[in-house]
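Please decode residue identities from the backbone states below.
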């Protein structure tokens, strides 16, 4: 009896490890796609914001969700549209980004408060959290590194495009989520180096 119990915990550990690696690989691939197709990503995020807005309005009209929760959700979507204006360049210190992070916390608080008082099946609660609270911040999070590989578009007075690109515009290291995933990939599966 104890042997089967031990095997069940071991199998659970292996399954969690495989799921974690699969999610990391998927996020890495998604971040690569976002870096490659920033214009399409911006358009997709815009459509996701519109969809989330329609869902919030539908929840207010058909399900009679509280006005405060829907209002904060709609205001959050408006702030997301503001973040989309400078996409793929998202400054982590901009007031718009800080406000969106704060509104995510407020939205979660209001949602937890509402669903603690009103009973809804778990699948419906998960649907609300997915479409109204998680999908858009997740899209912005995955696309944080998308602005690093875009060609330089602004110059300082006295600089020409070529020298700006090769000196000041060039970074020694990449930053963002892709660096983290690359580090994890190299730590788990080190690449072979050719020896001549």
């Amino acid at each position: 009896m104890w042997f089967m119990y031990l095997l069940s915990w071991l199998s659970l550990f292996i399954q969690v490890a495989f799921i974690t690696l699969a999610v990391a690989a998927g996020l890495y691939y998604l971040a690569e796609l976002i870096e490659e197709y920033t214009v399409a990503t911006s358009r997709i995020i815009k459509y996701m914001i519109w969809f989330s807005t329609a869902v919030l309005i539908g929840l207010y009209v058909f399900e009679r969700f509280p006005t405060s929760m829907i209002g904060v959700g709609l205001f959050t979507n408006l702030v997301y549209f503001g973040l989309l204006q400078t996409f793929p360049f998202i400054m982590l210190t901009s007031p718009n980004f800080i406000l969106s992070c704060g509104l995510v916390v407020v939205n979660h608080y209001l949602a937890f408060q509402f669903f603690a008082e009103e009973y809804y099946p778990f699948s419906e609660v998960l649907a609300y959290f997915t479409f109204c609270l998680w999908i858009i911040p997740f899209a912005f999070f995955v696309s944080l590194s998308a602005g690093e590989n875009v060609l330089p578009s602004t110059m300082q007075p006295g600089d020409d495009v070529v020298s700006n690109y090769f000196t000041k515009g060039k970074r020694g290291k990449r930053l963002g989520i892709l660096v983290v995933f690359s580090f994890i990939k190299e730590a788990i599966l080190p690449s072979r180096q050719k020896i001549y």
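Observation: The chain has a mean pLDDT of 82.
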